[in-house]
Design brief:
With about 200 residues, the protein is of the alpha/beta class. About 30% of the residues lie in helices and about 25% in strands. The chain contains 5 helices and 7 strands; from the N terminus they run βαβαβαββββαα. The protein has helices at about 10-20, 50-65, 95-105, 175-180, 180-199; strands at about 5, 25-30, 65-75, 115-125, 135-145, 160, 165-170. α1 (about 10-20) links the parallel β1 and β2. The longest helix has 17 residues, at about 180-199.
């Protein structure tokens, strides 16, 4: 089952995680860049799942290979679900996550621990050459930390505190993070679908 899958992302941190999760399968995961695909895709869906499907279908129409895409983000209850589907574009597409995280911590000042609940959500979509679309979703529950911590991970990881591990997701080692993360859970479910399709 030596197959190639294109993952519709340009995010190096995300791609590294994905390749680790697929390491136990005879599947070569390549990025859009590695596949020589350079297109801008407008993610105008109203949910993580819709955005993942939009991306997967758009790339599959170009390359006619199996394409996976994900859309993920941080949902903070005290902020009405923000940044949500706008997580990557929150405060502008080119704003650093250091500034994004500082802004969120500033907005959460004075909010007590019981009301700091948040979750990372990841939807993964697969577009197959026969036109079939499959989707999976994973969640990782936590709270917004009082201050950033950790050098691992990327994005909002330094401010996402996992009470059961007593650290942020940026403090976790990559292996542990992939086992419990929203992306890890969604991709493990997607692997089951891929196995049934590629046999």
């Amino acid at each position: 089952m030596n197959k190639k899958i294109i993952f519709a992302t340009g995010n190096e941190g995300k791609l590294k995680e994905i390749k680790m999760i697929f390491a136990d399968m005879e599947i070569e995961v390549v990025s859009m860049n590695e596949a020589g695909i350079d297109v801008e895709i407008e993610e105008n869906g109203s949910s993580f799942e819709e955005n993942a499907v939009i991306k997967a279908k758009a790339i599959a129409e170009i390359c006619h290979e199996i394409v996976l895409a994900d859309d993920s983000g941080l949902v903070i209850d005290a902020l009405g679900g923000e940044p949500g589907v706008y997580s990557a574009r929150y405060m502008g597409e080119n704003t650093s996550y250091v500034l994004k995280n500082q802004n969120i911590l500033e907005r959460m000042k004075g909010v007590n621990e019981a009301d700091r609940s948040a979750r990372f959500v990841c939807a993964v979509a697969a577009a197959f050459p026969d036109g079939e679309i499959a989707t999976t979703e994973g969640l990782m529950e936590g709270i917004i930390a009082l201050e950033p911590s950790g050098e691992n991970g990327f994005g909002y990881d330094p401010i996402f505190y996992l009470t059961q591990h007593q650290c942020t997701s940026a403090d976790l080692d990559p292996k542990t993070k992939n086992e419990i993360s929203h992306r890890g859970k969604a991709l493990e479910e997607m692997k089951k679908i891929l196995v049934s399709k590629l046999v």
